Amino acid sequence: MIRRLCAAGLLACAACSGTAADWRLEAGLQAHTLEETSPSGARLVRESGVAPVLGVALHHRLAEHWALAGRLSGWHSRADYDGRTQAGQPVASRTATGALGLESRLVWQPAAWRAEAGVQWEVFDRRIQGTAGALGLDERLQQGRLDLGAGWQRGPWDGVLRLTWGDRGRLRVRFDGAAFDDAHLRSGTARGVGLELSRRLAPGWRARLSLERLDVGASQAAALARAGLPFGSVAQPTWRRERAVLTLERRFD
């Protein structure tokens, strides 16, 4: 449902014409970390890396104080993986990780301040490389989220603070060498906070700094099987992702 709302918002923006609508291309870099923790709060895994970010955004003024905004963006990197096996042995590896995100928001701006309400849809991938003592695996999370934001403008500066919430999403796990059958789980619920600060540099150009923290609870346990035969259960622990993204934006009216 949330994915359809995001797509509908972007299509509505794309169908707009005239001077009230503009496209924006974005490119930049992000630093990101991801940590998994046990129920007791002990750290199980830490991933960290730097990734290029690309995106396209649309903005259309609907009425005097109303606008519709949408964004499609993605990133991909190879992150350092520092974790432990189930037996507690340390594991150092690499993770190919990335995401594709779709956003749509309704904006109300009666003055220099504004309020926003929107929906997000994210496909988040992790490909953890196996080692001599640990099995590699692929994870794919598809999750929709809602967000509320409040923003302000002052001179060349613009800022917005957002709070995010997401219901359980679809999580698929694949194991290297078909050691186990694919597992299909429901992720934990998501809660997040984000801050965006941007500054106009020249006509049509803007620099933007985005800070984001997303906390996702432990997944529901699912049956684990090998060649169709029961082999225990599997679950994803609680995890937190933090991102700092610096982008340069070019507007096309």
Number of domains: 1
The global form is elongated
Query: What is the H/E string?
Result: HEEEEEEEEEEEEEE
How are the strands of the largest sheet arranged? 1-2-3-4-5-6-7-10-11-14
Low-pLDDT parts are none
Structural notes for this entry:
- The chain has 253 residues and is mainly β.
- The protein has a single domain (2-252), classed as OPCA outer membrane adhesin/invasin (Lipocalin, Beta Barrel).
- The chain contains one helix and 14 strands.
- The protein has one helix at residues 2-15; strands at residues 21-37, 43-61, 66-84, 90-108, 113-128, 137-154, 157-166, 170-175, 183-186, 190-202, 205-216, 222-226, 229-234, 238-252.
- A ten-stranded antiparallel β-barrel has the order 1-2-3-4-5-6-7-10-11-14. A two-stranded antiparallel ribbon has the order 12-13.
Keywords:
mainly beta, 1 helix, Lipocalin, ten-stranded antiparallel barrel, 253 residues
Summarize the structure in short.
The protein has 253 residues and is mainly beta. 6% of the residues lie in helices and 71% in strands.
What's the helix and strand layout?
Blueprint: H1 2-15, E1 21-37, E2 43-61, E3 66-84, E4 90-108, E5 113-128, E6 137-154, E7 157-166, E8 170-175, E9 183-186, E10 190-202, E11 205-216, E12 222-226, E13 229-234, E14 238-252
Antiparallel strand pairs: 1-2, 1-14, 2-3, 3-4, 4-5, 5-6, 6-7, 6-8, 7-10, 8-9, 10-11, 11-14, 12-13
